Amino acid sequence: MPHLTATLFDPVHVGSIALANRIVMAPLTRNRAPGAVPTALMAEYYTQRASAGLLISEATAISQQGQGYSDVPGLYAEEQVEGWKPVTHSVHAAGGKIFCQLWHVGRVSHTSLQPHGAQPVAPSAVVAKTKTVLINDGVPTFTDTSEPRALQAYELPDIVHTYAAAARNAVQTAGFDGVEIHAANGYLLDQFLKAGSNQRRDDFGGSIENRARFVLEVVRAVTDAVGAPRVGIRLSPVTPSNDAFDPDPQPLFDYLVRELAAFNLAYVHIVEGATGGPRELPDRPFDYTGLRRAYRAAGGKGAWMVNNGLDKALAEQVVKEGADLVAFGRPFIANPDLVERLRRGSAFNEGDRSTYYGGGAKGYTDYPTLGKR
Ligand code: 8OZ
Fold it and tell me: Which residue CA neighbors atom 5 of ligand 1 most closely?
């Protein structure tokens, strides 16, 4: 419950989990898991950042079909689940909490990453005008996504079960404190939500209710699998990422959060504006306060997490205005001690973009903390 004097550094309960502060490390794709298996270097990277109230893992594929980029981790094969254990154990030993972001990319993929070189799957056979990152001989290469095929309705329950299985792997085996359903940034669930990518004529396309059906089925299955207080969801109502587009996002997302209110979710995570870009898009206006009010008015009690382009002043402002949690993405890449820097009002290190995606320790675990300077 936000109180009048809440600051970024106050502890807060999310679901049944006690967080040391309200600062969250947003999910960040780093492409350092060859064969989709997490590494010791990843454990070091997350542990360096464990002073965040909550860490959200990089997007993690629930199946090979859900893979869209080279060297991103998974949660569907035993060695992947085993590979996450040292990550969660090490974060916990450092006093941190970590959720795993569950990811199916849908059409944002390439045949070279799919089982048997198959076409990627999507609500409809509409190509995403976007690129994926393939790593060729260690060099990240932006590559056009492949033409997807439309999923048949009979295939959908299987994908829903796959989300639930990955959630169980995350929480019951790998040691995560919870999972975040990635329904943002133009990936499979967002593709179903938005009319630009969903031209279906069955129960999963057309009306708002129909386009929201698939994500709500996933939420149902994942909350049944691991308990709603361990489940968050990420939404990006207007981001143009990965060719995401809906002509009328406000009623769509107002409806969705009202439906989400019935689940006792840990949190709802909203990317305001263009992911990693401007917070305001003149051609895509959106009322985020209205969205939060719609959730609360429908009885939603989860923490409200705000993300995108925040600095200290803006983070304090959104908490004052009613957000419970604030998520920082790119600042956490170059600032493992971001919480301390925010506390002291110190400058942030600049990230090196050339090492965002792929590579080793350079630009990953070698950023300086204040103490070491
Ligand atoms: C950047 C590069 C690759 C993937 C997202 C998972 O936008 C991503 C992603 C970001 O949510």
Answer: 185
